[in-house]
Amino acid sequence: MLSKLIFKLFKKFADQVNSDTFIGLLLKPIEFFISVFTLYVAIKQLKHPLEVTFFKYKKTIDKVKVNEAFTIGELIDKVFLFLILLSIFWIVLRIIDFIAHVLLARSAKTKNKADDQLVPFIKELLKFLVSFIGFFVLLGYVFEVNAISLITGLGIGGIAIAMAAKDSLENLLGSFLIFMDKPFTVGDVVKVDGIEGTIERVGFRSTVLRSADKTTYIIPNRSMIDGVLENLTMRNARRVKFDIGLTYETSNEALKKIIVEINEFLKGNTATTEAIVAFDSFGESALNIQIIYLVPMKKEFDLAKVKEEVNFKIIEIVEQNGSEFAYPTQRTVGEITGKQDK
Asked: Counting Cβ atoms within 10 Å, is residue 209 exposed (0-12), middle (13-18) or buried (19+)?
């Protein structure tokens, strides 16, 4: 019920998102908060054994040591304050998750892929900041630790922590550079350090790639900017290059005609550009023709279908000109001498 009331505050913002998502995210933390708060109120109604001393300690007040007693009631206050603050920050984190969910739903309807990349990053950044603040709030209110004095007093320990966190800081810097330079966006197909895949998410520390065989690769952001990265999606065309081998029985005129007809077909086909067809070399058992062409990066041109169409046409042209495709063959001495005897 409380989740539905809170959802009304976000109703205008999340008009396109079902309330069940919000309730699913907030249900457990709110239930935890209500349970802890109710239990605390109930326990505070008791008088015994809340006033019983849990342990004694000495406290210095104006350079004078005074004996103090820490009661069970004070211990319960500390425990429940810790749990209540923890549940509040848990609720805040879940609200951030919901806001990110709404923004992702909105960005999915736009053509700009940068939104799909930015929202998860901002989400992780905000959750990190909230967790960081929550940690020091708990230290200050529950454990009565002066957070500012703690940070400034780290000294050599702080340097050691900074050195240990060097990789994390480099990855964080890498994520900012990715968003500023935009070498890729979510949905782009990239190749980095020999790994090829589709960008699924750019996070606070790492980038998630999904390969063609559905393998998930998690690559540190530092590696994404330090290594040689190929953005295959930004190509304006895909290059196809291969050789075909014709038998040595193919006449000179037939060979020239085959080359001309393949070239004319590729140049007349809207799915292929910048075609080059040439007699490349004399193979051990074939006359090798090299074929090169580009397929533009357009949705209507499926690379596999274009290659299939070109290959079938090449077979047709070769057969029409009375030639055949060569395959590795060897002649024995007997076959050669037999022909000479004849």
From this structure: buried
Distance of CA 54 to the CA centre of its chain: 51
- 95, 26 Cβ separation under 8 angstroms: yes
Neighbours of 168 (CB within 10 A): 13
Nearest Cα neighbor of 219 from 175, 177, 185 is 175
What are the b/e assignments for 253-291, b being 16+ CB within 10 Å? ebbebbbebbbebbeebebbeebebeeeeeeeebbebeb
Write out the chain's pLDDT in tens, 342 residues: 555 556 565 556 556 666 677 777 788 888 898 899 888 888 877 766 666 666 666 666 656 565 666 677 778 888 888 999 999 999 899 888 888 888 877 777 776 666 677 777 788 888 888 988 888 888 888 877 776 666 565 555 555 555 555 677 777 778 878 877 788 888 888 988 888 899 888 887 888 999 988 899 998 888 888 878 888 888 888 899 999 999 999 999 999 999 999 999 999 999 999 999 999 999 888 999 999 999 998 878 888 999 999 999 999 999 999 999 988 755 554 544 444 444
DSSP string covering 69-91, please? EEEHHHHHHHHHHHHHHHHHHHH
Q: Which one, of 25, 26, 75, lies nearest residue 51 by Cα? A: 75
Q: Is the peptide bond before 220 cis (omega within 30 degrees of 0)?
A: no
